[in-house]
Amino acid sequence: MATPTRGEGAPDRVVVRLKRVRQAFGRLVAVEDLSLDIREGEFLSILGPSGCGKTTTLNLIAGFFPPTSGTIEVAGEDVTEKPAYLRGLGMVFQNYALFPHMTVFDNVAYGLRMRKVPKPEIRGRVREALALVHLERYEDVRPRQLSGGEQQRVALARALVYHPPVLLLDEPLAALDKKLRDEMRAELKEIQRRVGITTVFVTHDQQEALSLSDRIVVMSRGRVEQVGDPREIYDRPRTRFVADFVGAVNVFPGRVASTEGGLRVALDGLGEVALAGPERAGAFRPGDRADLFVRPESVRLAANPGGAAPARVRQITYLGQHTEVRLACGADGNGPGFTLLVEEKGQGAPPPPGTVVCVEIDPRHAQVFPPE
């Protein structure tokens, strides 16, 4: 079942290409001017909030309906008008869509039988697919006798059994509890790597996208906001939406103090911050209002309570791997609040509520955007 993984064959070969794709349902525009290349063997996630167009994009690739305009290619062939059953792509739905009256074996074999594959070949390929998802002993079991994670594995085996060029996943982990979702996320990634199949994964969960993907497409209101690898999306967001949507973030209001050699931003009640590079300097002039975006892990509580950026501890929440400390800017505790994550290992317990502390911002990981 294995196909060449990235790095073994032609890693830059485009398997799916969308060109200027637009999809409208009456007056509602679900996808607007979407152009995207999906490479052979990569795991690409389409990430965004509900209604952003991510599932519509997946359905357009699958062929459930043609786009209003634009073209879609699979393996170099224009499939814009070709229906789903002729595209030969694998699909796993959020609700798995298993046949309840069929056994696991028959569910996985269904697509092969529709394609008139010989019976001996069907048996071999179904067993191969079930072994891939560790369900070899479940051939005669019906879906209602399986857990949610096991049902998801059956749906995955059914999608992989006929060796599709692309695997499409529509939020397949959404119905699972957190522990099982984490386990299945790791297993899904391992199966994808082992098989080497090009995978398009739709999700609204940032952690899923960051942990699974080679690249992430962030969408908002039917348009692509940014495409990049997980580190780029998280550390170097290009738009305010991406910075705010992907992961937790602190937003500090301020004003541009200088643009010479980079940006210096005077934050309201927290002093000045000099950004590490000249990025976005050309978009601002001294005196412009600006919002500084900083990830919680790039903000620290300073030891000296007499520093230039005072804040008062309002709330402490222990979350296991880290502690969430909610602060109020300004020593009097009446300023706007923001969230700070503090790693407890080697640092001891954070100061109790009511304590006046100082805030240190790491400018290497800060981003500046115009106010909304």
Description:
The protein is α+β, with helices and mostly antiparallel strands and about 375 residues long. The chain has two domains: about 160 residues, Rossmann fold, CATH 3.40.50.300; about 120 residues, Nucleic acid-binding proteins (OB fold (Dihydrolipoamide Acetyltransferase, E2P), Beta Barrel), CATH 2.40.50. About 25% of the residues lie in helices and about 35% in strands. It has nine helices and 20 strands. The strands form four sheets. Strands 6-7-8-3-9-10 form a six-stranded mixed beta sheet, with helices on both faces. Strand 16 and strand 17 form a beta hairpin. Helix 3 packs parallel to helix 5.
Instruction: Tell me the major beta sheet.
Output: 6 strands, mixed
Query: Proportion of β residues?
Result: 25-35%
Extended strand count: 20
Q: What is the end-to-end distance?
A: 50 Å
| Domains (count) | 2
| Overall average pLDDT | 87
Order of helices and strands: EEEHEEHEHHHEHEHEEHHEEEEEEEEEE
CATH architecture of the largest domain: 3-Layer(aba) Sandwich
Low-confidence stretches: 2-10
Spatial strand arrangement across the major sheet: 6-7-8-3-9-10
Percent of residues in helices comes to: 10-25%
CATH superfamily of the largest domain: P-loop containing nucleotide triphosphate hydrolases
Number of helices: 9
What Rg do the Cα atoms give?
25 Å
Q: Which class of secondary structure composition applies to the elements? A: alpha+beta
CATH uppermost class of the largest domain = Alpha Beta
Estimate the global geometry from the Cα principal axes: globular
CATH topology of the largest domain: Rossmann fold
